[in-house]
Amino acid sequence: MDLELYQVDAFADTVFSGNPAAVIPLYEWLSDDLMQNIAMENNLSETAFFVRKGEYFELRWFTPESEVDLCGHATLASAHVLYEHLDYDDPVVVFETKSGRLFVDRENGFYSMDFPAWPFHEIQVTERVAAALGARPDKLYMGHRDMMAVFENEAQVRELKPDFRLVAKVDGLCIICTAPGLDYDFVSRFFTPDVSIPEDPVTGSAHCMLVPYWAKRLGKSQLTAFQASARGGVLKCEDLGDRVKLSGQAVTYMKGMIVL
């Protein structure tokens, strides 16, 4: 069995930046074990698989260790593969996922994704979290999946040196760290060692919490964001109430074939 594979740098306008994702188009679903093994072999933060079902596509995402319920950069990468390599020409791509239907359109080189806005509530800043991050945030919030630590300024976020062993033990799947930006409305970093990704380069799903938070705090619905990882990535964001719109670019790094 031969499977096409594309590696795409998402939220990037040049290769070697943004967040790399593998994308594998399928005619029918493989077994969960096989898809998990492929994701482990790819050893990227996410491998996306999709199958066409009439007018929409079923889409699933796998880290090297497990399947996840939402991944922004691999969704963007999947839309890029459809438009750039598989002759898809409809105005909007509709993906059916574990997080419901997701819509992606393309305009002027940017892919715009319609994602759910995730609710969150404030919790106490604990010594456990401060020790894990190596710095004490001003505020701490808990969503249905991730924890979000808010710092006073961009430098604090950029200079974080987390203890990933301790980060893996705090509540939630991941920790989002964020602060007001100097050149952007806000900056962030995203730590998730629990799924073998110590720091994710650019994380669309994190902005399902970040955008509602910063939209309310800054009193504006349209925002620009920068994820301040080593690779870095820019996102254009819009708060739509119970939804968020996330836009970014993508570049194909590699096309290949998996031989099984």
- What is the string of SSEs from the N terminus onward? EEHEEEHEEEEHEEHHEEEHEEEE
Silhouette: globular
Q: What CATH architecture of the largest domain would you give?
A: Roll
Give the full name of the CATH homologous superfamily of the largest domain: Diaminopimelate Epimerase, Chain A, domain 1
Task: Summarize the structure in words.
The protein has helices spanning 32-42, 72-85, 127-133, 154-158, 164-167, 207-218, and strands at 2-10, 19-26, 47-53, 56-62, 67-68, 92-97, 100-107, 110-116, 120-123, 139-143, 146-150, 174-180, 186-192, 197-199, 222-227, 233-239, 243-248, 250-259. By secondary structure, it is of the alpha+beta class. The protein has 2 domains: 2-115 and 247-259, Diaminopimelate Epimerase, Chain A, domain 1; 120-239, Diaminopimelate Epimerase, Chain A, domain 1 (Roll). The protein has an 18-stranded mixed β-sheet that branches. Strand 6 (92-97) and strand 7 (100-107) form a beta hairpin. The model has no long low-confidence stretch (mean pLDDT 95). Belongs to the PhzF family. It holds the Pfam family PhzC-PhzF. This is PhzF family phenazine biosynthesis protein. InterPro entries: Phenazine_PhzF-like.
